[in-house]
TrEMBL record:
It comes from the Bacteria. It comes from Blastococcus aggregatus. Keywords: Membrane, Transmembrane, Transmembrane helix. This is UPF0716 protein FxsA. One of its GO terms (cellular component) is membrane. The chain crosses the membrane at residues 72-96. NCBIfam families: PRK11463.1-2. InterPro entries: FxsA. The keyword GTP-binding does not apply.
Length: 160
């Protein structure tokens, strides 16, 4: 339903622009924005994928941001390539590095608002490993032990 409304809005905007600047100029503008979309997608997409690979290699904690940027670049490029002026504006917002953070923040807030209350940020997770063990008479209880067995492969080294 949302896609149908967006398509209807695109047609209305296209007709209004065609009445304002003429049909030929409107078609040329649509072709120009698609070409601009391809160029921006190639440039920003390559940059986003390079940053994503570099953060994956180094194991940085910000890899999620790079992954989100790569996704926004892909969506922005698709919106720019498809005909329509509303999609071009939204795609441009996703493709440009300066406005991409605004789109990321807006999407994060939208998604968080649709989550159940218990899952909305900030989410606190306690772990047995990080939680302090209860004390008895000022003596720490020993850590929990998990019994197990080491499996060895045919060469005698531990498997896995």
């Amino acid at each position: 339903m949302a896609a149908g409304l967006l398509a209807l809005a695109e047609v209305i905007v296209f007709v209004l622009v065609a009445q304002w600047i003429g049909v030929g100029a409107t078609v040329l503008a649509a072709i120009a924005t698609s070409a601009l979309g391809w160029a921006l997608l190639a440039r920003q997409g390559t940059k986003a994928l390079t940053e994503l690979r570099a953060s994956a290699r180094t194991g940085r904690a910000s890899a999620g941001r790079e992954l989100g940027d790569a996704g926004l670049v892909a969506v922005g490029g698709l919106l720019m390539v498809l005909p329509g002026f509303i999609g071009d504006v939204l795609g441009l917002l996703c493709l440009l590095p300066g406005t991409r953070s605004l789109v990321r923040t807006a999407l994060g807030r939208l998604i968080a608002s649709r989550l159940p209350v218990g899952l909305r940020p900030p989410v606190r997770v306690d772990s047995v490993r990080t939680a302090e063990m209860p004390r008895r008479d000022d003596v720490r209880t020993p850590p929990m032990v998990i019994e197990g067995e080491v499996l060895r492969g045919p060469d005698g080294r531990p498997a896995g």
